[in-house]
Amino acid sequence: VQLVESGGGLVQPGGSLTLSCAGSGFTFEDFGLGWYRQAPGKEREWIGLIYSTGDQINYADSVKGRFTISRDNAKNMLYLQMNNLKADDTAMYYCKIPTLGYWGQGTQVTVGS
User: Which of 4, 29, 55, 110 has the least CB density, counted as fewest CB within 10 Å?
Assistant: First the structure.
C-alpha cells in the first residue's frame, strides 16, 4: 500500500492550491480516504473525509467552505482543493486510508508572502 502526496508549496494569503494523493497497492475505489494536516508544534488535525464512491464528504469546521475534497477512482487519485488560504493553513498535509491506517509521507503547504 502506498499513498503519495504532491502539490504543496508556497502560496500567498488568499491564494489557492490543489494537493493530490496517488494511491497504489490496494483497491482504491473500496476505501474512504481522509486528509489531515499538522502544523509545527501542534497535533495532527483531521481536515475531511470522502467516502469510497465520493457521494459523501465531511469537512472540519476550520476548512468548511474553503477546501474541497474530491477523488477520481479511475485514476486512483485523491484531491484537496484549497481556496482563500490563510497563514493558519500552513502545515504538512497528509492523506490517509482511515480503516487501514496507512499514511502518505506528506506535502508541505506554506502560506505567506
Answer: 55
